[in-house]
Amino acid sequence: MKFSGREVFDLAAAWVALGVAFTFFFEPAARAFDVGAIVSFLPVSMGTVGVAFLLHELAHKVVAVRFGQIAEFRADYGMLFVAVMSGLAGFLFAAPGAVHHRGRITLRENGLISLAGPVTNILLMVPFGALALSSVGGLAGVGVLGVGINGFLAAFNMIPYGPLDGKTVWRWNKPVYLLVFLPSAAFVVWMLTGTPGF
Questions:
Q1: Which residues face 75 on adjacent strands?
Q2: pTM for the full model?
Q3: Domain boundaries, the chain
């Protein structure tokens, strides 16, 4: 697996920008530029949102390369700016970039490349769920946030619209699409309807 200097830079920039954006979004005191709030919450954001994003994109790359594709992540710096500004405004819109790949490919292979990111987010819910069950307060909070973020990213990316992963998976295999989308969407609905701890 090879990474160009630009790709490493883009991944790092997107990770930091998303960490900052979600810090502003989740921590109201950070939006008032409370340095203490930013310093205390930014590592949590980087470790939950950042890891969820980074491993999602790397999963796309790994599977694409496995199928003989030339694949690299490219950040969308305009959208990273929008993410940070929207977090500062108290809402969030984040489309940090994508793994672009090229080469001869089948519909199935393209579907599996798209599926890899959301499935990675679903799998990440397991270790974050273990942290959420921890008796250590700080770790439990990180775990709860990590479970919620990864569940949301899986469901959101499986929406079969536009450039999202779900559109490609839906076109390839509808039963596989439903197998991944329905549980993740149900989890998000469950989480947003007042689940204790979220």
A1: 97
A2: 0.88
A3: 1-105, 107-193
